[in-house]
UniProtKB/TrEMBL annotation:
Transmembrane segments: none annotated. Residues 70-114 form the RING-type domain. This is LAME_0E02828g1_1. InterPro entries: Znf_RING, Znf_RING/FYVE/PHD. It comes from Lachancea meyersii CBS 8951. It is found in: Membrane. Keywords: Membrane, Metal-binding, Transmembrane, Transmembrane helix, Zinc, Zinc-finger. One of its GO terms (molecular function) is zinc ion binding.
């Protein structure tokens, strides 16, 4: 059985050889668990659209407690003179807009509960909407 040092030396040798990148990738794929490989591949996926992040509801400064902090950067919201705090729909977790914008540019989940933020679209109640009777009215 080889030691870690032997394994590192073997990887270094594979990396140094020309044309051996395929062997190196095969060895690394055996070392990295499948679940982690899938997670790494998912990181390549696009996150939320920019218009989604721009449309997140802002939290009024008066509703923010002095002790509340962003779970991403761990800074208190009120340390900023003009805090831009947003609330994610459905789960209700709040973050600095700048922090969550970076996160959502790469993922479509809440940083805290991993809820898929795009799967919960608000439902619009159209039961009380009056339909226009004369469709030909505008051309």
């Amino acid at each position: 059985m080889s030691t870690r040092r032997d394994l590192r030396n073997h990887i270094h040798e594979l990396y140094q050889e020309n044309g051996a990148s395929n062997a190196l990738l095969q060895m690394l794929s055996q070392l990295i668990p499948e679940s982690m490989q899938e997670e790494l591949l998912q990181d390549e996926k696009q996150g939320c659209p920019e218009h989604y992040v721009d449309s997140l509801p802002r939290v009024n400064k008066n509703k923010i407690e002095d002790h509340e902090t962003c779970s991403i950067c761990c800074c208190r919201y009120k340390e900023d003179e003009y805090p831009l705090v947003v609330e994610l729909p459905h789960c209700g977790h709040c973050f600095d807009l700048e922090c969550v914008a970076v996160w959502l540019s790469k993922r479509t989940t809440c940083p805290l509960c991993r809820d898929d933020v795009l799967s919960h679209k608000p439902k619009v109640d159209v039961s009380q909407v009056e339909m226009e009777d004369d469709w030909g009215m505008y051309g």
